[in-house]
Every structure is written in structure tokens, then in C-alpha cells.
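#help-structures
NK: newbie question, is this the right format to request a structure? protein is 3-hexulose-6-phosphate synthase
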Amino acid sequence: MRLQFAMDTLTTESALDLAAKAAPYVDILELGTPLIKSEGLAVITAVKAAHPDKTVFADLKTMDAGELEADIAFAAGADLVTVLGVAGDSTIAGAVTAATKHGKGVVVDLIGVSDKAARAREVVALGAVFVEMHAGLDEQAEDGYSLDALLAAGKAAEVPFSVAGGVSADSVEAVQQAGADVAVAGSAIYSASDVAAAAAAIRAAIR
Ligand SMILES: O=C(CO)[C@H](O)[C@H](O)COP(=O)(O)O
């Protein structure tokens, strides 16, 4: 299982600092949606230039204009971009067209989708390389939140999937046991006082 570090920070300087500390322990460097909105596509180019050996994941969360938004992110250096699962099929197919042109990939983020397993199968048929079983930061803050529903959806989907929603060193083993291809960890790493140690601890918990 690969480990993806979601950098939900707001400046390129901070992203480059976080990436440098975590890179030895992670496979995928994610530029979070707030970071891309704050700094624009240039942050993708900067992180890819600093880490050409890593998969650079641009969390665009595209909802419309799939081909155009994916195209400009791939041209900036992204290896993977996200499109929302609640978007129309034509938006997802458009992003896949751009990915094919660039030799890159589209990940469909299932945040806000009620039947994640069923939508996962549909979007993989449209060409997504994997889906993200995702509970966002606001959902994580709700009473009673747990990763369990995401893990169950991943098991039921029977397609390649990642899990994002507060994954930590304590929960990453359950993510792996559910059959995930990628574990996504954001705040568990970037909020730690020792970013490198936090990333290393999650890596060590992956068998
Ligand atoms: O896409 C996101 C929020 O929309 C986050 O990057 C994702 O949820 C991973 O971060 P965390 O581990 O802190 O939940």
C-alpha cells in the first residue's frame, strides 16, 4: 500500500518545507485544494521540480470543465488530479481525455457521494485510475465520525481505492487490511511537531 501525504497548507514555501521533511517516507505528495486555490498552478510546478521522483497529486476537486482543468494541471506537472464523484460523467470523461493525452491519471474523490461503492464502479469504468473513499475535514469534525464507513465502502467497491479522512499511525493498519491501494494522511503529518517523525511512524505501521 502506498502512502500519500496531503499538504493542506497555504503557501508554496510551507509545502516545499513539508514535502522535504516527509518525502523519504511517502510515495505521493498531494497539493491540497486550499493550497492550489491560494498559490495557483505554480505550486504544482514547484513541488514536482523539487521532487521529480514522487507522484504529485493535485487535489483540484473538479466539478465542471473536466478536460480543461485537468489539462492545465497536468501541463503544470501533476501526475494525478482529482475530479469529484458527484460531477457528471461527462466531466469525469473529459478529465480522463486530458490524462490520456498527457500519460497521467484521474482519481475520483467520492466526498459527498451517498453510495460510494456503486459510484466507484461507475467512475472506474469511465477511466479513473482509482477512487478516493473520502470524508472531508468538516465531516471529520462531526460527532461520532469514524473511518469505518469508508473502509466498508472500499471493501464493497471491488475497485482500486484510497482512504482519506483523518488517517493516522493508529488507523493506517485498518486501512491496509480493508484492501486500500493508498492511505492518505494529512493533518496527522502536517500538524505534528516533528513532521518527518510523524510520516515515518505512519510508514512503519504499514506492513
Ligand atoms: O482533501 C482533504 C480535505 O478535503 C484532505 O487533504 C484529506 O481529507 C486528507 O487530510 P486528513 O488526513 O487531514 O483528513
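mod (FA): yep, format's fine, and the C-alpha cells are attached above. The mean pLDDT is 98.
NK: thank you!
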